[in-house]
Amino acid sequence: MDSVFSSSDVAMAAILGNYFPICQGTHSPLFGKEFPMTEKNPSPRHILARNLKLLIEKSGMSAPEIARRARVDRKTVNNQLHARFDPRPDQVAAVAQVFGLPGWLLLSSSFRPELAENGNLEKLLELYANANKDGRENILRVAEMAAAYQPAKEPTKGVSSNGR
Predict the structure, then answer these.
(1) In whole angstroms, how large is the CA radius of gyration of the chain?
(2) CA torsion sign, 94 to 113 to 140 to 32?
(3) Where are the domains of the chain?
(4) Cα–Cα nearest to 56, from 106, 127, 4, 119
(5) Of 73, 27, 23, which Cα lies nearest the Cα of 45?
(6) Which entry of 56, 130, 159, 163 is 20 to 30 Å from 117 by CA?
(7) Cβ atoms < 10 Å from Cβ of 83
(8) C-alpha distances out from residue 34 to 22, 23, 49, 62, Å
(9) What is d(CA 47, CA 137) in angstroms, rounded to the nearest whole number?
């Protein structure tokens, strides 16, 4: 049976990190922290709660401060943080804008705050969207090689390569 996804769909999923699910069980290998995820594929509200908690931890902003800046009710941010209701797109977008992010990124199971620090993710998505089929496949190959690349470890200072 043929896949319903084209190679460019798979490429975009790989670039965004959704190709390799990371939120299975209770441990996220990307963050090294425990996140109580009971579902194999967590719901958008649980993903949003986890990602919002990561942003709060990194930024040092409080939930009331985020609500004020997003111009949403404090209960909205509190509900998002505790995964109480399915998120409304307009509210997610408003909260994401506080951090200079697009709303969809807060709903990505592979979100990491450092992905959006310098605007390169948006640039990559724009380049990918504007590329032809071959270009998208090339972007995927480069992304896969970069993800697999492990730089050589630096030698410990004070120890020479000949053991002296």
Answers:
(1) 19
(2) negative
(3) 42-138
(4) 106
(5) 23
(6) 130
(7) 19
(8) 12, 10, 13, 21
(9) 29
| Angle formed by the axes of helices 7-16 and 133-148, nearest 10° | 40
- pLDDT value at residue 16: 53
Can you say whether residue 86 is alpha, beta or left, with left for phi > 0 and alpha for psi between -120 and 50 degrees?
A: beta
Element (H, E) at 33: strand 33-34
Structure-token match 């290998």, residue found: 29
* Main-chain phi, psi angles of 28, to 5 degrees: -105, 110
Q: Which residue has the tokens 């951090």?
A: 99
Largest Cα–Cα distance in the chain? 64
CA angle 16, 33, 62 (to 5 degrees): 85
pLDDT in tens, the chain (164 residues): 444 445 555 455 555 554 334 433 444 444 444 444 445 789 999 999 999 999 999 999 999 999 999 999 999 999 999 999 999 999 999 999 999 888 999 999 988 888 777 778 888 889 999 999 999 999 999 989 988 887 776 665 555 555 54
H/E stretch holding 34: strand 33-34
